Amino acid sequence: MARHDEGFFNAKDNLRLFWESDLPDKPRAHLGIVHGYADHSGRYRKFIDALVADNFAVHAFDYRGHGQADGRRGYCEKFSDFIGDLDVFWNRVRAAAGPKKALLVAHSHGALMAIHHQAQNPPDLAGLVLSAPYLKLALRAPPLKVLAATMIEKVVPWLPIKNEIVPELLTRDPEAQKAVERDHLYNRTVTPRWFLEASAAQLQALEMAPKIRLPIYVVCGSDDGIASTPTTREFFPRIGSADKQYQEYPGMRHEVLNEVGKEAVWKDISSWISKHL
Fold first, then answer.
1. Counting beta carbons within 10 angstroms of the beta carbon of residue 37, is it exposed (0 to 12), middle (13 to 18) or buried (19 or more)?
2. Disulfide check for 69: which of 62, 146, 188, 236 has CB 3.0–4.6 Å away?
3. How far apart are CA 218 and CA 244, in angstroms?
4. Which domain range does residue 229 map to?
C-alpha cells in the first residue's frame, strides 16, 4: 500500500505551489508529473494509481496559476517563471529519489516546460516522457484575436479571456468530458501575456531539439485538435538523443492519458520507463 502525502512548497519568488506524492515501500524509480495548461495534478489520479501499481513512486505538483497553486489563473510574468517552478519541484523529486533513478512525465504545456527545463541540464534527470507536447497550437487563432491580445498585453497582461477549448477536444471519453465540466479547479480562461510568452517558448523549443541528449519517449494522438501533431512529427527526428522513441495513437485526441484506450498508453509509458532503469 502506497503512502499518500500532499502539501505546499514555495516557488523561487515565494509563490505558494501545491504538491502531492504517492510512495510505495520499495519503489523502482521516482517519477515527476507535470500537468498541462488549465490543468492540475488531481486530473492525473488514475494514471498515477496505475504507475504506483507498477511500483513507481509518483510526485505531482500544480505550478503557478493552476489547480491549488497561488497566482493569477493561467498567467505568468514570463515563461521562465514556469521553468523556475518546475526546477524547484524537480529538486524535491531528486531529494525523495535518493539513489533511485528519477524521470519526468510531462503533458502538453508541461511538456513545453520540460523541454526548456532540460536545456538547463538539471542534475540526475534520467529521462523524459512527453505527452502531446504543446509545440504549436493546432487551432487557428483568429488574426484579430491575436492582434487584440498583443495590444491588451501591453496594458492589462493578466486580463482573463474565455478559453476556446471544449472538453470534446481533450478526449473522446464521455465520462472524462463530464469530469472536466464538473471540475472547479480546471481553468477556463487564458491571459494575453501567457499566450504571447508560450508562443515564443514554442519557437525556442523547436530550436532546442538537436540539443536534447537524454532518453526521451514522445506520445501523442493522431487527432489532437489542440497541440499540433504534425509539428510534433517534425520535432521528433530533430531530437539529438540516440535513445528516442515516438508513439502516435490513431484516433486519440489531446489527452492520450485520459482517452478511450488510455490503459494501453499507461502500459507503454510504464514499459518504456522500466527499460530505462
1. buried
2. 62
3. 8
4. 3-275
